[in-house]
Amino acid sequence: MSVVAGYDGGKGSQSDSGGGSSRLQHCAQSPSSSSRTKDARYQQQLLQQRHHAGSMLKQPSHSEPADVVRRALDFKCQGTQCYKEKKYREAIGKYHRALLEIKGLCRVLGDPDSSSKALSSLPLSIAKSTTLTDEQKGAMENAELECYNSLAACLLQMELVNYERVKEYCLKVLHKEGKNFKALYRSGVAYYHLGDFQKALYYLKESHKQEPSDTNVIRYIQLTEMKIRRNAQRDKKEAT
Q: Is 0.90 topped by the overall pTM?
């Protein structure tokens, strides 16, 4: 019985020994196999990264100045279409998007007139290594003026008009283009409704020089002169 038990135990021991030997052999081989697997994966990752980097270098940049100008012009055109469809709020949003593109480009290119709050759409590295052509500069400046003029036009169509903002946009245009008829006229309208009739009359008369037959300008000049006369009469009565 003891022999059988011993035999069984021996068999079991032999089996365990064989299993243990197998496990030891497996454990002895695992580090080498695992290491080779990791090395292979690492090499594969390196190749993938190099391939990805190479493909990135081959891809054209999407932040070149020409692309920014193109996006600005696209937003401006979309705003104009919205204005024609009397979707004034949507138009305002499109014009602001165009101005953000333009201001961002101006700022990274070192334009001191650009707003410090404007979001940059160009990485600094690209801005330092590229410059705008004269044609691109002209397109950008024209788009900026048109956007400000159009924003003023949109605001004047709103139910509650923000005349202070209308004045602000128009003066931005006049700062760069002093004889812009629309900006002169709308500045006069804004000053009129803000109660500054002397400035209103000045801008309205300047716009009248550009378009002598414009009936809207003539009407606002008459209204403004009437306000000035009434205020003068009132002041005279109060003085006496």
A: no
Q: Quickly name the fold that domain 62-109+131-159 has.
A: 1.25.40
- 149-163 confidence digits (pLDDT tens): 999 999 999 999 999
Between CA 103 and CA 91 the distance in angstroms is 18
Quick one: residue 158, left, alpha or beta (phi over 0 = left, psi -120 to 50 = alpha)?
beta
- Domain segments of the chain as ranges: 62-109+131-159, 177-239
83-86: list long-range contacts, CB under 8 Å, 24+ apart.
Answer: 83/150, 83/153, 83/154, 86/157
Q: Which class in CATH covers the domain with range 177-239?
A: mainly alpha
Contacts 24+ apart (CB under 8 A), 203-207: 206/179, 207/181
